[in-house]
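User: I'm putting together notes for a lab meeting next week and I want to include a structural view of one of the chains we've been expressing. I don't have a solved structure, so I'd like a prediction I can at least talk through. The sequence is below, exactly as it appears in our construct file.
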Amino acid sequence: MLSQWQRPLQCFIAILSTLLVGTLIANISNFSHTQVIKHLSLSELIIFLTQIAALVLLYLLAREIKEALPNNGKTSSFIRGILPATAALLILILGQDVIMDILAPYLSSKGERIVIFLFWLAILVSGVWFIWSSYIHGPQLVAGILALAHHFEQWGKQVTLCPACGAHVKDDMTFCGYCGAQLPKGSISNSTKSSGQPAIERRFDNPE
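Assistant: Thanks for the context. Below is the predicted structure for the 208-residue chain, given as structure tokens.
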């Protein structure tokens, strides 16, 4: 179970390490005063490369998570279905600021508008892809929610109660750990609690 999440965890650790190391190197004082090209210092170039590397690793992380999730026709399948569109949308939104920060000093106002328009178009397409993926895989999410609700419903029916105080007890207990009352064999199921008779009344009905 844990082995299938090894590669996603490796990608996540790589993202954190990349951001940490890149930020530390970019903050070296000499780098901020060293110009690579006009309007671009060495520190700014390092930050740009760090952010690009983190976005690439984010894509790899999304791919590894998709591979790790089971295709069970429920919630996991829903996440698998929308993960590519989600990753693309997130990378484009974050990448727009990264690209514009590095290109802005070299673009004319017209060129800047063109780049912004291209990013807007790509983000729009990714947004439509995300909505469509959510619609296509929606029944899988509904199936997962219904399965979870059924699980909790069955769990509630399996809970056993002390006949004296109404506390939750284990089936193999002989005495209640809360009030000390002797428990009948098999205890009492949750259906007894819902019968309408309060726990305090059952205490008087059962002198034990």
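A couple of points you could mention at the meeting. Residues 73-152 form one domain. The two ends are 47 Å apart (CA to CA).

User: Perfect, that's what I needed.
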